[in-house]
Design brief:
Helix 1 runs parallel beside helix 9. The chain has one domain: Alpha-Beta Barrel (TIM Barrel). Helix content is about 35%, strand content about 15%. The chain has 9 helices and 8 strands. It has an 8-stranded parallel β-sheet with strand order 3-2-1-8-7-6-5-4. By secondary structure, the protein is of the alpha/beta class.
Length: about 230
């Protein structure tokens, strides 16, 4: 299983350091063999001296080494901290920050060329789901994306389940992931109101290789509980 925590715009630099140290101890002491990813805010990126199987990633970056892009970070800044993992295509960047599929594909291809592990996010709105066009919509979000890239991880996050406390039903997740598996060889994650009380059910889904977690992972104790409860699936 893959367990990934997306801090979004949460947690301070000081707490992030405490979080990583506590998580590192938990993973080592409990001999957790799963892949663990943490995506802190850009201001909290650092060299954490991790001893276990935790990977630190960037939530976002501009597809350049450096340059005149006010408010953005580029490859040069990520290299300083040895960051080689990134989230691309998250619905909040698509919906709120209006990133087009063309720009998302540009970012994907830039970081692919740099050898990054990419967690690529897709997800439909409730209106799309109600109109029974989920898969058509999701496939469109792969335009310009190399599905054969060997460092690709795909995260399915239905927009209507993100931060709402309402996770998609097991059969709905299973249906989408099974359809994705027909064309996607990469690991498939589910994201959308994942928590300690539903992780076992989600982890038991045939084509689910892990989870991308938002608010339920912002406190280290909660993230550790999710990881612990998801063992032995």
């Amino acid at each position: 299983m893959i367990y990934a925590s997306n801090f979004k715009t949460n947690n301070t630099r000081a707490y992030t350091k405490e979080y990583i140290n506590t998580l590192d101890d938990f993973i080592s002491e409990n001999s957790i063999k799963d892949e663990i990813y943490v995506f802190p805010t850009a201001t909290s990126l650092n060299m954490f001296g991790i001893s276990s199987n935790i990977t630190i990633g960037a939530q976002n970056a501009y597809p350049v080494k450096n340059g005149s892009y006010t408010g953005e970070i580029g490859l040069e800044q990520l290299d300083e901290f040895g960051i080689k993992t990134i989230l691309i295509g998250h619905s909040e960047r698509r919906e709120i920050l209006k990133e087009s599929q063309e720009f998302i594909a540009q970012k994907f291809n830039f970081f692919k060329e740099q050898g990054f592990r990419i967690i690529y996010c897709i997800g439909e709105t409730k209106e799309t789901r109600d109109s029974r066009k989920t898969m058509e919509y999701l496939w469109s979000e792969f335009d310009g994306i190399d599905l054969e890239y060997d460092k690709l991880i795909v995260a399915y996050e239905p927009i209507w389940a993100i931060g709402t406390g309402v996770s998609a039903k097991k059969e709905d997740i299973d249906e989408v992931l099974s359809a994705l598996r027909l064309r996607v060889k990469a690991p498939l994650l589910y994201g959308g109101s994942v928590k300690s009380t539903n992780i076992k059910e989600i982890a038991s889904i045939k084509d689910c290789d892990g989870v991308l977690i938002g608010s339920a992972s912002w406190k280290v104790e909660s993230f550790c509980e999710i990881i612990k409860n998801g063992q032995n699936q």
